[in-house]
Amino acid sequence: MRVLVTTAVPAERDAVAAAFTAPASASLVLDPLAGGVGPAAAAASTAAALTAAALTGEPYDLVVSAGIGGGFLPDAPVGSLVLADEITVADLGAETADGFAPVTELGFGTVTHRPPNSLVREIAAVTGARQGAVLTVSTVTGSAARAVELRRRHPRALAEAMEGFGVAEAAAAHGVPVLEIRAVSNPVGPRDRAAWRIGEALAALTGAFGKLAPILESWNPHDLTH
Ligand SMILES: O=C(O)c1cccc(C(=O)CC[C@H]2O[C@@H](n3cnc4c(=O)[nH]cnc43)[C@H](O)[C@@H]2O)c1
């Protein structure tokens, strides 16, 4: 099983790598990559890594978008883990007289990718992660009004971050399944830098990846029961 883990920044990549100080096993290769902040950088770096691996004859079986994120209160408090059963881009569309319209309503593309159900359930059980939608945004939410509006449009949203949808688009282009896992560093809502708990969130990320090896080793990527 070959797994590519795309994070945004080196601190997140190192938090993932810290869970694998000894090689997990001969049957699990996990490559953490700091691919940049935002959906475009995430898509480009993930696609480049997937293409390079495929060209060397050792393609990845799974891609994971991982890092810190904002949590919607009260369902995803700071320090909690969120595992996406749905990766949805929240601001790809058009403003209309009737409000925001996603690109799918305009007749284009996609706004949601769905990770494999069976794998999500197993990982949530072992890590204690909350399962729900993770939104991808290009602009970090900075007001209570925007947080309320996002939850109105996406009632199942537990977290927001900036890379998941980009990683998922690259994975889909390569026909590779995708996961997104977020450790909550701050609440989604009014901007408050003092409320960030980045160290706590990075430690939670390391803890989660430390529990993943046995599940990933035994998961059959060809059994994509949704
Ligand atoms: O300046 C601010 O108010 C602010 C608030 C939260 C996050 C940021 C970032 O620039 C971090 C972007 C980086 O971290 C992920 N992240 C973490 N928290 C959030 C969030 O609440 N909403 C969206 N993204 C978040 C994100 O995936 C980026 O990699 C600045």
From TrEMBL:
Family to which the UniProt record says this protein belongs: Belongs to the PNP/UDP phosphorylase family. Futalosine hydrolase subfamily.
Name of the protein: Futalosine hydrolase
Catalyses which reaction(s): futalosine + H2O = dehypoxanthine futalosine + hypoxanthine
Gene name in the database record: mqnB
Cellular component, GO, one term: cytosol
EC number: 3.2.2.26
Domain called Nucleoside phosphorylase: residue spans: 36-195
GO molecular function: adenosylhomocysteine nucleosidase activity; methylthioadenosine nucleosidase activity
Lineage of the organism: Bacteria, Bacillati, Actinomycetota, Actinomycetes, Kitasatosporales
Function: Catalyzes the hydrolysis of futalosine (FL) to dehypoxanthine futalosine (DHFL) and hypoxanthine, a step in the biosynthesis of menaquinone (MK, vitamin K2).
Key words of the record: Glycosidase, Hydrolase, Menaquinone biosynthesis
Keyword Hydrolase: yes
Xref: InterPro entries: FL_hydrolase_MqnB, Nucleoside_phosphorylase_d, Nucleoside_phosphorylase_sf
Keyword Hydrolase: yes
UniProt-listed GO biological process terms: L-methionine salvage from S-adenosylmethionine; menaquinone biosynthetic process; nucleoside metabolic process
Pathways per UniProt: Quinol/quinone metabolism; menaquinone biosynthesis
CDD domains in UniProt: futalosine_nucleosidase_MqnB
One protein family per Pfam: PNP_UDP_1
Top-tier EC class: hydrolase
